[in-house]
Amino acid sequence: MGASRMALFGDVVMPGTEPVDPYNLPPPAAWLALTEPQRMALEVLSLASVRRLLSNLAPGDGHPVMVLPGFLGSDGYNATLRRFLKSLGYRVYGWGQGQNLGPRGETLDNLMERVAMLGDRYGQSVSLVGHSLGGIFAREIAREDPSQVRQVISLGSPFGRGRHSGSYPARLFEALNPTDDLPVALDDLHRAPPVPTTAVYSKGDGIVNWRTSFQNPEFAHGTTQNIQVRGSHCGMTLNPTVWYVIADRLKQSVEDWQPFSASGLASVVVPKHA
After folding, report:
1. Contacts of 257 (CB under 8 A, 6+ apart)
2. DSSP 8-state code for residue 100
3. Which residues, at least 6 apart from 139, have a Cβ–Cβ distance to it below 8 Å?
C-alpha cells in the first residue's frame, strides 16, 4: 500500500525490549485508568437521559459512513453508535473485520477494498469514524486513497508522537503484531491525512495520553480540527457529547467544510475546539 501504511508501525519493537521514543510522554495517571469502567458507566447513563434529544437532530444527506472499532473491539462494540447514525439517515457500516487485533494478515487491504466498494455502490466518498486504533486505520486509509474518503473523525486515537510510551496497551499490541511481520518506515503517522480531519480527545482519557490524540497544528492543514470532550477512553462511542460532535461533522458538505462551533449548552459540554 505504500510508505504511509508503513508509518503506522515505524516505532514498533520486539516485546521485551525498550522502544526508542524521543518524545517519551507518560501514560495517563493510574487513577484515570482505574476509573475507566465507572466513568464509562456514567457516560452510558447520561446517554440514556438525552438520547431522545439527540434523535431530534437534523437528518444528514445519506452518504455512506464506516465506523471502525478500537484495539480488541469489534463491530458489536460500536453497534449503538451505528444505529444512531442510521437514524439520522446515513448509510452506516461496520468495518467487517471481526475483532481489531491490529494490522494482521490482509486487514488493511480488506479495509481499502471495503471503502472502495461502498464508494462505488453509492457514488459518494465515505466518511470514516474510528475509535482509538480504528481512528488510526481511518487516517491511514485516507492517506492512501483520499479520493475515496470524505472525512475522518478519530475518537481518542493515539496517532501523535509519544504514543508508544503514552499508551497502556502498547506492549500488548506489539505482542500480537510481531515486528518481523510488519513493514518498517519513517514515522509519519502524526501528520494529518489530506482530507477534512477531526480529532476528538478527552483529557480524562485513562488509556492513552490525550496529547497523542491531539492533532499538532504544525502537521495539520486548513480542514483539520481538534475537539475536546469530557469523558473516558472506553466510553467514547457511548458519550452523548461525542455523538453530537459526530452528527455535526457528518453534516458538513464536501464543497464547503466549516469548523465545529459550539454555542449555548453545547459550549458547556464541549470545553474546547480549535
Report:
1. 151, 196, 223
2. -
3. 130, 152, 154, 157, 159, 189, 192, 193, 197
Closest to 20 (Cα-Cα) out of 159, 161, 132: 161
Amino acid at 96: G
77: closest CA among 88, 67, 85? 67
Contact by Cβ (8 Å): 149, 197:
no
Residue segments in the chain with a per-residue pLDDT below the cut of 70: 1-21, 177-186, 263-269
Q: How many CB atoms neighbour CB 43 within 10 A?
A: 22
d(CA 196, CA 212): 19
| 195-228 per-position pLDDT tens digit | 999 999 999 999 999 999 999 999 999 999 999 9
In contact, 149 and 142? CB cutoff 8 Å: yes
- SS3 category, 62: coil
pLDDT in tens, 7-53: 444 444 444 455 556 788 999 999 999 999 999 999 999 999 998 88
Pairing mode of beta strands 224-229, 149-155: unpaired
Q: What pLDDT is attached to residue 11?
A: 42
Cβ 237 vs Cβ 49: under 8 Å:
no
